[in-house]
Every structure is written in C-alpha cells, then in structure tokens.
Design goal:
By secondary structure, the protein is α/β, with parallel strands linked by helices. Helices cover 35% and strands 22% of the residues. It starts with a strand and ends with a strand. The structure holds S-adenosylmethionine.
C-alpha cells in the first residue's frame, strides 16, 4: 500500500516540528504544499530535498485528477499546509475524500501530528479546554450575527481564527454580545518573536488594541470563556 501522510508543520518557530515529520518529509516521493516558497524554507532548514508540488484551496479539478491518476497509489505523498495541521481551516479534505472514493488505489491515510494554532492558543489560555467549540474563521457576512449569538450562549470555551483586518471589529461585536464577566483571550503571533497573549473582557482587549495599533498585525486566535 502506498501512503498519504497528513503532516503538521510549525506555526511560526521552525523548531516546532517532530522528528517523525522530518523523517517522513525526507522519505516520501512527493510533498504537496500550499506555497512552495514557504515549505521550501522549512525543507532547507532540515536538509530535505523531496520534490514539492503546489496544492491549495484553488487547486483545479484537473490537478486533482493528475494527483489521483499519476501520483496516488504509485508514490508515497505527504501533504502539508503553510503552517500547522493540514485540513484545520486549511486545504486537504478534498484529497482525502478522493482517496477514500478510490479504495482500489490502496492508499493508506496516515497522520503525522504536531502544531496547530487553535490547540496552542487553548493550551496557554488558562480557560477550561477539556471541551471546546472551534469555529475556524468566522463568516464575514452571512451567518455572522447568528454565530455571535451562539458564542454568547455557549456553555463551552469557544475558539476561532481571526485576521488583523477584522480583529478590532470582532472584539467590538463580542463586547456588544457578551456579558462583561466573560473572559476573552487573544493569542497573537504564537511561537514567533512577537508572541503575545492579551486577556480581559472584550472591551478591555479591544481598548488594548485601540491604544496599541502597532500590535494589530500578524496572526490571531481568539478564545472566549464559557457562559
Ligand atoms: N491549519 C492551521 C493550524 O493548524 O493552525 C491554521 C491555518 S489558518 C489558514 C491560519 C490562521 O491560523 C491564521 O489566520 C491565524 O488565525 C491562525 N494562526 C496560524 N498561525 C498562528 C500563530 N503563530 N499565532 C496565532 N495564530 C495563528
């Protein structure tokens, strides 16, 4: 049986990769990745020379067919994303669906676990995380209002991803919909030089960013305490 490895890579600090991930990425015949320049940086650090091919959210039907016909079932392949765990708010599900739809190819799907921004942020949040609701990226328009209502009513810790362009708007919406007692944790630039965790009510965290506009950049995970 050939193998399709779903390999987690660092979310910032290139040292956050497992020994197994380095070995698998060295041993497979091909690595499918979102941005070849980003993955190349990681491969160079670990002296890995495996060929790369791009695979991303806009990968065409034709390319999927090529991957299925030419590659899978013949070569061992690793799928990585730009950062963290593939398929978690990242591409990859479609290729797994394809493999599952073609059992005759006898491709085994194997996880090589590692970093993910959501679990990294939860792990330092100090909020109960035995159970949590993960919302990925919140929708920009349709369904956004309902989601804020859901967050307000939720009896579990809620986590989601946010961009620097929307973080302040989102904090404002949280301020409007949440009780003052609900704690909000914003984990920013995790594992990178400017890693930072800001905690408080939605209003307090919002005020922090208002008075520190230079911090409204990078990558963010937002965590909201349970109702
Ligand atoms: N699959 C990835 C994972 O497992 O973490 C997530 C991919 S998603 C396209 C990218 C989003 O994850 C960013 O917009 C940000 O919200 C979050 N993220 C990624 N790296 C981060 C970091 N170092 N610090 C904080 N958030 C991060």
């Amino acid at each position: 049986m050939t193998k399709l490895y779903i390999v987690a890579t660092p979310i910032g600090n290139l040292e956050d990769i497992t020994y197994r991930a380095v070995r698998v990425l060295s041993e497979v015949d091909l690595i499918l990745c979102e941005d070849t320049r980003i993955t190349k940086r990681l491969l160079d650090k670990y002296g890995i020379n495996t060929p790369l091919e791009s695979y991303h959210a806009h990968t065409s039907e034709g390319k999927h067919k090529y991957i299925l016909d030419v590659v899978l079932g013949k070569k061992d392949v690793a799928l990585v994303s730009d950062a963290g765990t593939p398929t978690i708010s990242d591409p990859g599900v479609k290729i797994i669906e394809l493999v599952r739809a073609h059992p005759e190819l006898e491709v085994e799907i194997i996880t090589v676990p590692g970093a993910s921004a959501v679990t990294s942020a939860l792990s330092i949040s100090g909020l109960p995380s035995s159970e949590f609701l993960f919302l990925g990226f919140l929708p920009h328009k349709k369904g956004r209002k309902t989601l804020f209502e859901e967050i307000a009513q939720n009896k579990r810790t809620v986590a989601f991803y946010e961009s620097p362009h929307r973080i302040q708007k989102t904090l404002k919406r949280l301020e409007e919909s949440l009780d003052e007692k609900r704690e909000v944790v914003v984990a920013r630039e995790l594992t990178k030089i400017h890693e930072q965790t800001i905690r408080g009510s939605a209003r307090e965290v919002g005020l922090y960013f208002e008075s520190h506009p230079e911090k409204v950049k990078g990558e963010f995970v937002v965590i909201v305490s349970a109702r």
